[in-house]
Write a structure and sequence with these properties.
The complex is a heterodimer of chains A (910) and B (255).
Chain A (H helix, E strand, L loop, with lengths): L1 H18 L4 E9 L10 E6 L5 E6 L4 E7 L2 E8 L6 E7 L5 E9 L18 E4 L2 E5 L11 H5 L5 E3 L5 E3 L2 E2 L2 E4 L2 E2 L6 H4 L7 E10 L1 H6 L6 E9 L6 E11 L4 E11 L2 E10 L10 H5 L13 E15 L4 E26 L2 E27 L4 E25 L5 E27 L6 E26 L5 E31 L4 E18 L2 E3 L5 E4 L5 E19 L3 E18 L4 E19 L4 E12 L3 H4 L10 E4 L7 E14 L4 E13 L2 E7 L5 E7 L6 E10 L8 E2 L2 E13 L2 E20 L2 E16 L8 E13 L4 E12 L9 E14 L5 E8 L8 E6 L2 E7 L5 E13 L9
Parallel strand pairs in A: 1-7, 13-16, 34-38
Antiparallel strand pairs in A: 1-4, 2-3, 2-5, 5-6, 8-9, 9-15, 10-11, 11-12, 13-14, 15-16, 17-18, 17-50, 18-19, 19-20, 20-21, 21-22, 21-49, 22-23, 23-24, 24-25, 25-26, 26-27, 26-28, 27-30, 28-29, 30-31, 31-32, 32-33, 33-35, 35-36, 36-39, 37-38, 39-41, 40-42, 41-42, 42-43, 43-44, 44-45, 45-46, 46-47, ...
Chain B lengths: L3 H16 L10 E10 H7 L8 H11 L3 E10 L3 E7 L17 E6 L4 E8 L2 E8 L3 E12 L2 E10 L3 E8 L18 E6 L4 E9 L15 E3 L1 H12 L3 H12 L1
Parallel strand pairs in B: 6-12
Antiparallel strand pairs in B: 1-2, 1-11, 2-3, 3-4, 4-5, 5-6, 7-8, 8-9, 9-10, 10-11
Classes of the chains: A mainly beta (910), B alpha+beta (255).
């Protein structure tokens, strides 16, 4: 009987263990080291090894303990007992080791306290909030007096290239904010080089809508990659800044001053900058904003610049934050001397021509701008915003060019010598008013927005050109050759007016519908005259052939409807806008009018889904009618470059572009690892392409036309995986990007088809702490090129290694190097490889307690390999150029960082 | 030898008492008096949100006329298996200054052997009875200590409702995983607890180790029976139209 029961019980137990999950257990006992007695009532706590969160706890009974029903994983065992030091040990439970036997653990009285810190709160470095990636600054160690720039370099997925452009997951960051506010406009450099890393609590990166989309409510699918620097509460009140001055060999110098006074309600900042070392970086964001001719006077790494600029910024809130003002004044001057030569191979259906040119130029520019934005809450439901921007810029330049084109068989085709001196004056003003009102029903709102902008440009230029053609035998062809000596004054006026109304109505808890209507009206007049030199030596003989006087007007109106569903997991929207655009171009010299009307349609769809807190997926589609521009239809008559002439095409029709995008990402906070996958595909139907006719004299004539049957397209995929190897602080971020495009145009009436596929693999490795940092970045790329006209397939391969090292040495010395090695393999077009190794090294010593006074000796381009040599390929030409650039020099710099922060009225969280 | 198990147990107990006589005595039952202090300036300021700027006037009125700190009393009786937290009614706050975190809304019965709770919650004019498992709190212990009401306490930092930061000091000598309100789950009773971002703190003013019988530890009975999930839905449905203040209130009611 008893046997039977025993068998049944054993049987039951067996079947239970077979069915039930494995019972993971920990056992052990606790003894006092001094008395050798078992300790009763000691607390046994089992923590998760990764985040030290309590899983289970128990107390010793008769000195022994057993914790069961654990899950497999890595744990930390902590034993505590009053007046005794904590005991801790880690252990792992898995299928192979379902139980851990600790045996006898010894507790030591606190008098013999161990110094070992057993539990350290681990900071979670990254959080994904909606479509925002949030980096916790505390998780990334930076040096003392480091700036935001130094912090950004440590963040996974973030890269700053040599010209200071910030890339996040391969996409350019266009806007940067401090605590959600613009700081010196939205120029990233004034934040990255100015704000201290130790002031930052979080770095948030997200895709913002464009200003236009925000104001009109019209989703245009364009994303503005934005970084928001969130300051620490205890660093919101204080004074900080930096002053540095440096002198070097080759008459190089650089000086910089930045001072800031922050309080929770106000920020005041000034900066001044001067130098000829090429680090002009500051103020770079303005070029796109003020547009116009200013771009051509900007520094792009070519030539020798001398820059001076400065600015003042103020933002403040008052009257219980009901009113706020954000204003920035900037001014800057830039002189650039350029000197260079270039050689281009220009493809023809039956061969190629070679063009070589020598050029020198000197330019000077000066600009000023004042931007201000004022916001006020009219009552609890409505807000009014007024923004204004005023800018003036003056520039002048003198340039000389000598261009010679040689036929494929080596016989000279033409030669053009030009001398151009011009000056330029631009005034730009802008005013916008924005009103938003929330209505009583939650989610129902009305808003209206209007703006006006005025732009005037006056310029004058003297053009001297001596153009000679040669016949098949290389003899001068006097009948076609021409000399030009002209004065060309020009005046451009433009006015642009825009207004819209937007109404949003909630349909259900998560569903809303919006209606919008907008109109725009613009008027441009462009008057450019050409005067030949009279016998008396005055430029007073009008040359109507190369004079232009156009007035263009565009009026457009659009109707828009959008449906949006927004819940915690899903955010999706569909919208479309339909409208018309009327264009009129009047040629006042020849009294002709060109009027056209286009229907404009743009559908949009997006979908966002959150699988979990850490994984999200996005899809998007955008379509857009693109109307031909005036100058594609009727270009300006010009003789600045008689070898390259553009003619119009009044038969141009609008094209329609389609863009698809996809983004998937997942992040595991506990292991600080994640995956980002992006893909884009764009194609254009009825695309407007630029065609070229090269005649026997070597003159290129360009004309736009609609492309039939073929769809130019481009696509891109980007995969990034990042994480730490087991048990290491090293951060690995390998990523692969594959992109391709197909483009088409007509060359001498033959369809030229050009396909590219690029493969790029990138392996960045980073390691850093407060007293050292190392990073290596290896990039290899292959571009395959397929074209139907060229005999020379221009595939190219190359790789690049970037490295960075910084070490603190004893006695407050520090040393660092930044290297960049570039290799482009030879290919069928260029039989020689290019390799360039730019090495910069510095050695310095820090003084004072906070190490905020530094003397640094920097050697720039130590190997003197910055030759200014460049290769460039387009679908129908290859160009090699050599330009004067800044070469090796040494700079001795004194840097002083200052900061003083107030204390908080209320203490921070403990 | 009809009941060998009982005999063995008895023997083991006797044996252990003898063998560990010199060991520390741990408290396993008693009564604790708590005092809750709340910073009303900060609490009322939390109600002034961008979508409810109208509360600003009340906030300013409060600053002028009322005290910054209010205190309330409560008791916690416990034994090794269970505990009962009961608020003692105090001075009531004018409705327009009121916020759920400033009220003592809960009578909390916690059963540690079963891992369950019975919480009676006042929600405006209604009474709910939450029957669910003990609230999950992610605790991390630290090596910082402090003496509260004469007991050595160790600090633990926690996260409740996934976002509310809690700092607790638990007595290492009281082997009961209880604490004020529904804050439990540490290897000792919580004698001091603060919600820094909610601007409230509970501190034990008196700990009396006495025997507590099961009769004194009776779960509350009155109220509409729900679980935490249903309770949250009730709160969310009722407050969802209130915007930011609504979200603040939901958190206060749910804590």
């Amino acid at each position: 009987m008893l046997n039977r029961i025993t068998i049944i019980i054993i049987y039951c137990l067996c079947s239970l263990t077979a069915v039930a999950q494995v019972n993971y257990t920990v056992t052990g006992s606790v003894t006092d080291t001094t008395t050798k007695q078992k300790v009763d009532g000691a607390t046994i706590v089992i923590l998760n090894a990764k985040d030290s969160i309590i899983q289970k706890f128990t107390y010793t009974n008769k000195g022994v303990f057993k914790v069961d029903n654990l899950k497999p994983g890595k744990f930390l065992l902590v034993v505590t007992y009053p007046d005794y030091a904590d005991y801790s040990a880690d252990f792992t439970l898995d299928a192979a080791h379902p139980s851990k036997e600790f045996g006898d653990l010894s507790l030591i009285l606190k008098a013999r306290l161990l110094n070992e810190v057993i539990i350290k709160a681990k900071v979670i470095p990254i959080k994904l909030k909606g479509d925002t990636t949030e980096f916790n600054a505390a998780a990334y160690a930076t040096q003392k007096n480091a700036k935001v720039e130094d912090l950004l370099k440590l963040l996974p997925g973030m890269r700053i290239n040599q010209s200071g452009v910030i890339l996040f997951q391969g996409e350019q960051v266009q806007k940067m904010l401090v605590d959600g506010e613009e700081f010196f406009g939205d120029d990233p450099a004034l934040i990255t080089k100015n704000v201290r890393a130790d002031m930052v609590s979080k770095i948030q990166v997200y895709d913002d809508k464009t200003e236009q989309a925000k104001k009109s409510g019209l989703d245009d699918g364009q994303k503005v990659k934005t970084i928001n620097v969130v300051l620490r509460e205890d660093k919101k009140r204080g004074v900080f800044g930096k002053a540095d001055a440096g002198m070097g060999t080759d008459k190089r110098y650089a000086g910089q001053l930045m001072a800031n006074k922050f309080s929770p309600k106000e920020k005041i900042a000034v900066y001044g900058n001067t130098g000829n070392t090429g680090n002009v970086g500051l103020g770079g964001g303005d070029n796109s904003k003020y547009g116009g001719g200013f771009n051509s006077y900007a520094f792009n790494g070519v030539g020798i610049p001398v820059a001076r600029d400065g600015g003042v910024h103020y933002d403040g809130k008052w009257n219980k934050d009901k009113q706020s003002l954000n204003a920035t004044y900037k001014l800057g001057g830039l002189n650039i001397d350029r000197q260079g030569t270039s050689q281009s191979k220009i493809t023809l259906p039956d061969g190629f021509n070679t063009t070589s040119s020598n050029s020198t130029s000197h330019s000077h520019s000066f600009r000023q701008s004042l931007d201000a934005q004022f916001n006020t809450k009219l009552d609890s439901l409505s807000t009014l915003g007024i923004a204004t921007s005023n800018a003036t810029s003056n520039a002048s330049s003198v340039s000389d060019n000598n261009t010679t084109t040689v036929r494929g068989n080596g016989v000279i085709l033409n030669n053009n010598v030009t001398h151009n001196s011009s000056d330029y004056r631009n005034k730009n003003s802008y005013l916008s008013v924005d009103y938003h009102r929330s209505l009583k029903k939650p989610g129902r709102s009305f808003s209206t927005y209007g703006d006006i902008s005025l732009n005037n440009t006056k310029s004058g230029s003297y053009l001297k050109s001596d153009l000679n053609y040669y016949d098949d035998n290389g003899n001068l062809d006097n009948t076609h050759s021409s000399k030009t000596d002209q004065y060309k004054p020009a005046n451009t006026d433009s006015r642009y007016l825009y207004g819209n109304f937007l109404y949003t109505e909630p349909l259900a808890k998560h569903l809303a519908i919006s209606f919008s209507m907008n109109f725009s009206d613009s008027k441009n007049s462009y008057n450019q005259q050409s005067f030949n030199k009279s016998a008396a030596g005055a430029y007073d003989v009008p040359d109507l052939l190369y004079s232009n006087d156009y007035t263009t007007t565009t009026t457009a109106h659009n109707y828009y409807m959008a449906l949006r569903y927004n819940s915690e997991k899903i955010n999706t929207g569909f919208s479309g806008s339909l409208g018309s655009s009327k264009q009129k171009q009047t040629d006042n010299l020849f009294d002709t009018v060109l009027a056209r009307k286009f229907t404009v349609f743009s559908p949009h769809a997006d979908f966002f889904y959150r699988f979990s807190k850490a994984a999200t997926i996005n899809f998007g589609y955008n379509g857009q009618t693109q109307t031909p521009s005036f100058y594609q239809i009727q270009p300006l008559r010009q003789n600045n470059d008689l070898l390259n002439i553009t003619i119009g095409n009044p038969l141009l029709k609008p094209s329609f572009s389609n863009a698809f995008n996809f983004f998937y990402r997942v992040y595991q906070a506990i292991n600080d690892q994640g995956v980002n996958l992006r893909a884009n595909y764009n194609f254009t139907s009825n695309a407007i392409v630029n065609n070229r006719m090269t005649d026997s004299a070597g003159v290129n004539t360009y004309q736009y036309s609609n492309l039939n049957g073929k769809h130019p397209n481009n696509w891109n995929t980007y995969l990034e995986v990042y994480g730490h190897p087991k048990g290491s602080k090293l951060l690995l971020l390998p990523n692969i990007s594959i992109s391709g495009n197909s483009s088409y145009n007509l060359i001498n009436k033959k369809l030229s088809e050009n396909r590219n596929i690029s493969y790029e693999a990138d392996l960045p490795i980073r390691l850093g702490a407060t007293n050292y940092s190392y990073s290596v970045n290896i990039t290899a790329s292959i571009t395959k090129n397929k074209t139907n006209l060229q005999q020379l397939a221009n595939d190219y391969k190359g790789y690049q290694i970037d490295f960075h090292q910084y070490n603190k040495l004893p006695f407050n010395f520090f040393i660092g190097t930044d290297g960049n090695y570039n290799y482009s393999a030879p290919n069928r077009v260029y039989p020689t490889a290019i390799s360039k190794f730019l090495l910069k090294a510095y050695l310095g010593k820090a003084f004072l307690k906070e190490e905020n006074l530094k003397i640094t000796l920097t050697g720039n381009d130590l190997l003197n390999q910055n030759t200014g040599y460049n290769r460039k390929s387009t679908s129908d030409s290859f160009t090699e150029s050599r330009d004067m650039v800044i070469k090796r020099f040494f700079l001795l710099t004194v840097t002083w960082d200052f900061s003083k922060f107030g204390t908080l009225a209320q203490p921070q969280k403990p | 030898m009809k009941n060998p198990v009982k005999t063995i147990l008895l023997f083991v107990m006797l044996h252990s008492n003898l063998a560990f006589a010199q060991n520390k005595q741990f408290v396993t039952s008693g009564v604790i008096e708590f005092e809750k202090t709340q910073n009303m300036f900060a609490i009322i300021k939390n109600k002034v949100t961008t979508d409810n700027a109208g509360n600003k006037a009340y906030y300013e009125q409060y600053l002028k006329s009322e005290p910054q700190f209010l205190t309330y009393k409560s008791t916690l009786i416990f034994n090794v298996n269970s505990s009962l937290f009961t608020p003692i009614p105090g001075k009531s706050i004018q409705w327009y200054y009121d916020a759920p975190i400033a009220d003592q809304l809960n009578t909390v019965y916690s059963d540690f052997s079963r891992g369950t709770t019975t919480t009676q919650k006042e929600f405006y004019e209604r009474t709910y009875l939450i029957k669910d498992t003990l609230r999950k709190i992610k605790w991390k212990i630290t090596d910082e200590t402090q003496t509260v009401a004469g007991y050595n306490c160790r600090r633990a930092n926690g996260l409740v409702l996934d976002s509310v930061y809690v700092v607790a000091f638990y007595a290492e000598d009281i082997h009961v995983p209880s604490g004020p309100e529904s804050f439990t789950g540490l290897p000792g009773i919580i004698l001091k607890l603060s919600l820094p971002h909610e601007h409230v703190i509970w501190v034990a003013t008196k700990v009396t180790p006495v025997a507590v019988g099961e009769k004194e530890l009776v779960p509350p009975k009155k109220g509409i029976v729900v679980d935490y999930k249903q309770m949250l839905k009730v709160l969310t449905d009722a407050q969802s139209r209130w915007g930011q203040v609504g979200r603040y209130f939901i958190r206060g009611f749910f804590l």
